[in-house]
Structures are given as C-alpha cells and as structure tokens.
Amino acid sequence: xxxxxxxxxxxxxxxxxxxxxxxxxxxxxxxxxxxxxxxxxxxxxxxxxxxxxxxxxxxxxxxxxxxxxxxxxxxxxxxxxxx
Length: 83
Hints:
alpha/beta, Nucleotidyltransferase, domain 5, 5-stranded mixed beta sheet, 30% helix
C-alpha cells in the first residue's frame, strides 16, 4: 500500500515524502502501475478536507491515465452515513 496525501495547501506527500512537481508524481504513479496487476499495491489517496477539488481530481486523472487500478480514497469517514 502507498499513500498520497493532498494537504490543505495542495502540497503532496508520498508515504510521508514530499512530491516535487508533476514529473515526480507521474514517476511514482508509473512505478506502482507497472508489473502484473495482482501484485500492484493499493494506492490510497488521502485528501485534506481543505484541499482544492481540482488538485485531488488531477491526481486521480493522472493515476487513471498511467494505469493505476487499485485506487482508494481514504480519510473522509466523517461523511459516511453508516448505511
């Protein structure tokens, strides 16, 4: 499992390490999208509730375009209605 956090200021961290621009983000996404699908790690996207929607959607679009198939959005449990 890998975790990408989108912080309140739209900065990105990958497993606690800062992402330094678009090329760095795409390199990380390509790495987890390579290899057999069964062995690919889950990609946990954890947006801060104050992060811009545009930034979160951009990350999701990059992940999809680059072949990430196991995407989970985490950290929004406060919005679950329990049904």
